Amino acid sequence: MKEIAIFTRQLSVMIDSGLPLMQCLQILSDQQENKNFQRSIHVVRASVEGGATLSAAMEPFPKVFDQLYINMVAAGEAGGILDRILQRPSTYIEKNLKLRRQVKAALIYPVSVVVIAAGVIILLLWKVVPIFATLFASLDTSLPLPTRIVIDTSHFIGSIWGLLILVGALLAAGTVAAWYRTPPGRLAIDSLLLRLPLIGVLLRKIAVARFTSTLGTLITSGVPILEGLDITGRTSGNAVIERSIQSVRRAVEAGGSLVTPLRKSSVFPSMVTQMIEVGEQTGAMDTMLQKISDFYEDEVDMAAKNLMAALEPIMIVFLGVVGGIVISMYLPLFSLIAKLSQ
């Protein structure tokens, strides 16, 4: 996405400077370090040289240029303002990258800590604790309660029951992943994610920011509202949001308003629907959508920080379990040393 954003911005500047499109594509193709992207631009240039429009030449590469991008390029070509239109997808992609970075920054560190701590706990219980258990059995000494709990847990993990639980967890994860690939499963899981206490708030704000940014960019670029809603729904990334946007599209197609189906969906906050209603009444829908998008990008940043703060106690608990296992293994040794010193 970063490479496409840079390519789009450079192409816009070159066209605005008066360079022919063929020369622009050749220069940008030569300077690309990503070989796959370089080949894609080269084929696009060959298609344009053969008489195709730029948007038509990009269509065979949906993994590089998505439907939103192609529609905006087509609108720019139709209006003769390709250089100005290309500034919008580059800005949109950069905003999308910023949203992804915020989510990654909020999740990667705590998830990494929890996963590593869980791996250390399993390793201790599976390999290290049995050594101590054998030592304590040979000493024939009474063990404190924390030590007995840790040793019993270690025996359970090393038994057939621990293996069965691990296999069952893997099968359950595979079943959920396969179910998520079906439309009912995707709808159910996405709906559940939106209802989660902290993650749901973050996902909802990301969805609102993406919806308003995508639709606002498409409308500003001259893409028809029905086509814009269709593209926005397909690129929303959440089945619940997609279903809500498709209901909005059907209402607009029937001559209705955007606001009524948005309110019925209960996905979008009342502030969003009220601002969209004002945008419809004043004829400044694109401006209003961009203002909502800018506001919710800041809200995503705040929600990501709140999620990070909420996950910190969970990280401390996992790290505390590691320390608790180590201490429980040394408790009998402390009592044994005290007896020997007497």
CATH fold type of the domain at 2-93: Receptor-associated Protein
Name of the top-level CATH class of the domain at 2-93: Mainly Alpha
CATH architecture of the domain at 2-93: Up-down Bundle
Number of strand elements = 0
Average pLDDT taken over every residue:
82
Whole-Å distance between the termini? 70 Å
Tell me the β content: under 5%
Count the helices. How many?
15
Integer-rounded radius of gyration:
28 Å
CATH superfamily of the domain at 2-93: Type II secretion system (T2SS), domain F
The secondary-structure element order is: HHHHHHHHHHHHHHH
What structural category do the secondary elements indicate? mainly alpha
Helix content: over 70%
Shape descriptor:
elongated
Any overview of this molecule?
It is a single chain. The chain is mostly helical and 342 residues long. The chain has a domain at 2-93: Type II secretion system (T2SS), domain F (Receptor-associated Protein), CATH 1.20.81. Helix content is 84%, strand content 0%. The protein contains 15 helices and no strands.
Describe the structure concisely:
The chain is mostly helical and 342 residues long. The chain is built from 15 helices and no strands. It has a domain at 2-93: Receptor-associated Protein, CATH 1.20.81.30.
What's the topology here?
Layout: H1 2-16, H2 21-30, H3 35-49, H4 54-58, H5 67-79, H6 82-139, H7 145-158, H8 160-180, H9 183-195, H10 199-220, H11 225-234, H12 239-253, H13 259-265, H14 270-282, H15 285-341
